[in-house]
Structure formats: structure tokens, C-alpha cells
Amino acid sequence: MLKGRWFQRKDLEVVNSQGKKLQCSHYIPAVIPEGTALPCVIYCHGNSGCRADASEAAIILLPSNITVFTLDFSGSGLSEGEHVTLGWNEKEDLKAVVNYLRTDGNISCIALWGRSMGAVTSLMYGAEDPSIAGMVLDSPFSNLVDLMMELVDTYKYPLPKFTVKLAIQHMRKIVKKKASFDIMDLDTIQVAKRCFVPALFGHATEDDFILPHHSDKICEAYVGDKNIIKFDGDHNSPRPQFYFDSITIFFHNVLNPPDVPDDHYFLTPHGSLGQVLQIGIPQVLKCVNFTYIGSVYVIYLYCIA
């Protein structure tokens, strides 16, 4: 329950173009008024992440009548697939999810929210699908090879540049053979030059994994409407509330969610409670967790990946 309203998480599978099953979750109101289509934000997790990372997005967006869909990319979480490709094949996973949602009569329009690898995935897909309403891009990298070179420089005993370049060329051949993509093609600056979807960039100022200049370069090259927000923290630190507030405002502006009367959601013996009971309390309760703070229980959504 959030702000007196019940929500539920529906788990499902979507099959990508390679025939791999993607494990997905959709956070939606427990009761949707008949004939009401709601906008949806697809949350795209980062490398080593999974769809559980979207729980925070659900808490932020559901009260604004924006549903949240999330997935385990191929090779991540519980989805099928052997390799993580840092955005290249994940773009095709995202395409499969968008196509699935467009067959859902309860979805009005679609936006994207990606973090790290998920931000790169969102940007690459957004350049191919101008119907996407908007994107939040949190700490994307501008060029994979440049990122690899920077990470080597952080080692206690840096390697000579020519040695690193030879190693990258060797890695390039291995990745081409095993994962069927070229790491040289992961250049989001070039993608940004042909993407017109409204975008909100975010990056932590102390990020020492993907340095802030990556977002700066992408934002500078980006041809669509854009804004960038910097905040304290590192690559994996919790994001500040003002950043989440900005995201909420951004999605509200690009998605224009409907104002649904509260009496559709607040639990009363004559209204929504009966509908919630039809859905089943276990189905509703598996979306929430209870934390005791002081003398009250705080109830928040979560996702089991």
C-alpha cells in the first residue's frame, strides 16, 4: 500500500528475438478503473543488477498513476542467456518488452529509466524508437573502449598504453566470437547525435567507475530536449531525494498520467476492498514489505528477482 492505495506486482515472461525467456515484473494498481489506460516506465537495471532494482522506481512513480515494468536482461537475474553485452543485445531485450507492452490495451505511452548499463541500453533503443515519451539516463558510459582504458589507469600499477590496447584487441576478438558483437560499436556519443527523445541525465560527482564526464559528453552531443543533474555520491550510492523529485516531475511532464479519483483506490467496505479481495490478499501482499520505525509501520514495495 502506498498513500492509502493498493498496488500489485505481476510476474511474467517475455521471449526476445533470440528465443530466450526474459523474467519480467509489472507494478500496477490493484484496481484500474474500466477504460483507463495508464502510462508505463520501463526500468532497465545495470551490470550485475536485476529487476529487483526497480522497487525504488515503483515506490516513486506508482502514486502518480505511472506503472513500472522491469526485466532481467539476458544473462542477468533469472532470465535465460549466457552473456551480458553492456547494452548491445540488451537493446533487443528492451525492444521485445516494448512490443509486448504495446499489445496491452491498458498502457497509454511508454518511457524508459536506465542506470549504468541500463542507461546505455535505453539510449541505444531510444535512438531507434522516437515514439518513446522520455528517458532518464543515470550514469551511462560514452564509449566502452574509453571506459576500459580509464579503468586500467585506476590500477595501483598502471600498464603501458600499448599493452592495454593489445589486450583490448584480443578481448574484442573473443567477444565477437562468443557474444557476436563488436565492443568498438558501443559508442553512445554517436547514438546521441541521432536521438530526439526528451532525456534527463543524472550522474554522481564522485563516481570513480564511470566518470561524470561520460554523461557530460553524451549530453553535449544529444540532439533532443535534454537536462542534466549532478549530485553527491558514487556509482552505486543511493540517489538523493531531490533527484527522485526531478525524475517524478520529468515523467509527469512527458507522460501526462491521468488523474484517477481517490475513491477508486482507498479501501472501503463498499468499494475497492471487495475488488482487492477478488485479486487475492497474497497476490497484493507479495508486493509489499513492512518496516517498523518508531511507533509506526512503514509499508513499501519490493521485488523478489
CATH class of the largest domain: Alpha Beta
Order of helices and strands: EEEHEHEHEHHHEHEHHHEE
Q: Biggest β-sheet: count, sense, barrel?
A: 8 strands, mixed
Structural class comes to alpha/beta
Mean pLDDT rating: 87
Low-pLDDT ranges: 265-305
Number of helices, where a helix is a run of at least 4 consecutive DSSP H or I residues: 10
User: What overall geometry do the principal axes of the alpha carbons give?
Assistant: globular
CATH architecture of the largest domain, by name, is: 3-Layer(aba) Sandwich
CATH superfamily of the largest domain: Alpha/Beta hydrolase fold, catalytic domain
Strand content: 15-25%
Q: Tell me the total number of β-strands.
A: 10
Q: Do you know the CATH topology of the largest domain? A: Rossmann fold
Roughly how many Å is the radius of gyration?
20 Å
Task: Give a nutshell description of this structure.
By secondary structure, the protein is of the alpha/beta class. It has helices spanning 55-61, 90-101, 117-126, 144-153, 161-179, 188-192, 213-221, 241-255, 272-279, 281-285, and strands at 7-15, 21-29, 38-44, 67-71, 107-115, 135-138, 199-204, 226-231, 288-293, 296-301. It comes from Triticum turgidum subsp. durum.
Molecular structure report:
This is Serine aminopeptidase S33 domain-containing protein. InterPro entries: AB_hydrolase_fold, DNA-binding_regulatory, Hydrolase_4. It comes from Triticum turgidum subsp. durum (Durum wheat). The chain is α/β, with parallel strands linked by helices and 305 residues long. The chain has two domains: 252 residues, Rossmann fold; 42 residues, no CATH class. Helix content is 33%, strand content 22%. The protein is built from ten helices and ten strands.
